[in-house]
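The protein record passed on for reference:
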Amino acid sequence: MGAVFVLHGSYESPEGQYGLGFEPFADERGFIVVYPTMSDPKGANWAYTDDLPYMAALVEVLTKDFSVDPALIFACGHSSGGSMSLFLQNEAKFLTAVGAVEAGVGHMDEWHMDERGIRTMVVWNHGDPVLAEFGGEELYRSTISTLRRRGTQQPYARDALPTSDRIVKAELQKYAEDAAPPLVMLSFRSEPGTHAWLRHPNCTFDSTEQLVRFFFDWPAQAWVI
């Protein structure tokens, strides 16, 4: 049995993440969904380094009391929860892969850049007005260069995804495992722009479904949109 941590964003709560649709996938595939909370409830940011013991304690409970397979523990998050997930991929030793939705790297002073990190997926809307406030395309490039700092900066594959009147551009960019861990960027643009975690039927892809498949259907050869 596996487990997926779902980290909420700024000024939100774990309960606010229930509508993301992880439970049907958990029932189908047999994993546990975990909704941690910030040490400062509904605060602006996670505590990063100070949250590592809390996350490790949750993992210990899952493995000891719920027989969760340590090799099948994943984390993802939205907005500041996604930035925390990206931090965890570098700092936590108890995760296999992470995902971030509408989020980039942050709090870089707490990253140990000598660490390699783990397999990561980022869902990024180039029309997101909130991401634009935090750097937009510069943050996008910085996120890739940080996660791929020891490997090639160019994807080995760009797979076009379905578009619509609302999703005007979308592609899956795949970066190979080399000196850096694998990275998948689900890069798209919506009109109008939104910071929301997009799903069916309001989007041509479902962010929740893609993260679940990225976590549990890896390697990439078996993971197809």
Q: What stands out?
A: The two ends are 24 Å apart (CA to CA). The longest strand covers residues 167-175. Strands lie at 2-7, 31-34, 73-78, 97-101, 119-125, 157-160, 167-175, 183-190.
